[in-house]
Amino acid sequence: MRLIKMTGGLGNQMFIYAFYMQMKRRFPNTRIDLSDMAHYHVHNGYELHRLFPHLPKDEFRIGQKAKKIVEFLFFNTIIERKQNLATLRAFERRRLWPFIYFKGFYQSERYFEPIADEVREAFTFSESLAGARTRELLSQIKASPTAVSLHVRRGDYLEPKVWRNTGCVCGLQYYHDAVRYIEQYVTSPHYYVFSDDIPWATANLKLRNATFVTWNHGQDSWQDMMLMAACRHNIICNSTFSWWGAWLNPYEEKIVIAPERWSALADTPHRCPPSWIQIPVTPILQP
Q1: Quick one: how far is CA 151 from the chain centroid?
Q2: Are 246 and 276 in contact (CB under 8 A)?
Q3: How many CB atoms lie within 10 A of CB 95?
Q4: Which domains does the chain possess?
Q5: CA neighbours within 13 Å on the CB side: how many for 106?
Q6: Nearest CA to 156 among 4, 8, 3?
Q7: How do residues 138-150 score in pLDDT, each as one tens digit?
Q8: How much is the pTM?
Q9: How far apart are the C-alpha atoms of 204 and 200, rounded to whole Å?
Q10: In which region does residue 188 sit, left (phi positive, over 0), alpha (psi from -120 to 50) or beta (all else)?
Q11: What is the C-alpha separation between 197 and 201, in angstroms, rounded?
Q12: How far, in Å, CA of 177 to CA of 182, rounded?
């Protein structure tokens, strides 16, 4: 039995589920542990089956009391893995282990690259679930050969502990550099700006041709990701939400701009596919 812990916001849930898909292909007796999501109310809780109702519902759920017993009995076989593929694969080869518990975010394409097409199919958004305003903008974006998504995340990134690690990474200079790069290769780009702090984005991003998407909040936030994925090019920040918006972009000639690092306190290798343009960033002291 291989059990994979599900946690985090939508972007991290998608990384974990993609890892699950790859693991299940190799080890059919793999399940997802959704027990913690019943009490997880950060962001919008568990969203995958609401947004992708076609996903199979064969995850393995385990109650909190039973989970504590299992963890006690099999403490030597519980594995908490984050970004160490070599160690992960070494443990996978030990097939005699009766129970393996995986806990991590698996924030790299390398965890599911062999089944990338299947992952794209699994994460196909249903336009019928989106609001009328989003569907109207989606049609406009699809018709534009110069549509560029630009994502600014602030919100929880402004909290002091989060700011020191991740919030400080993508400052205004990063966006200036990203826009400058895009404008070398895209004639008259139209920027579609997505942010949890639209007033800040409006006041600080001096874009000649831009639409600020202001209406997708709470349970509707996922619609921003769908719109990002429909753009021809993407400027993302150090956020798994816009990472997936760019990765799901199907255009072969797309330009994706990403920060060179995602954390000020730790290295973050292999976070982005090799084809993405990674711009050096200098962490800033204050929001």
Answers
A1: 12
A2: yes
A3: 6
A4: 2-122 (no CATH), 131-279 (3.40.50)
A5: 27
A6: 8
A7: 999 999 999 999 9
A8: 0.89
A9: 6
A10: left
A11: 6
A12: 9
Tens-place pLDDT, residues 122-171: 999 999 999 999 999 999 999 999 999 999 999 999 999 999 999 999 99
Give the angle subtended at the CA of 108 by the CAs of 105 and 114, to the nearest 5°.
115
Instruction: Work out the angle at residue 114's Cα, subtended by the Cα atoms of residues 109 and 119, and round it to the nearest 5 degrees.
Output: 65
Exposure string of 252-281, with b = 16+ CB inside 10 Å and e = fewer, is eeebbbbbebbbbeeebeebbbeebeebeb
Q: E strands, 10-82, where?
A: 30-33, 78-79
Tell me the average pLDDT of the chain.
89
Lookup: tokens for 279:
């711009």
What is d(CA 268, CA 1) in angstroms, rounded to the nearest whole number? 30
Retrieve residue 235's tokens.
């400027």
Beta strands in 143-207 (DSSP E): 147-152, 190-195
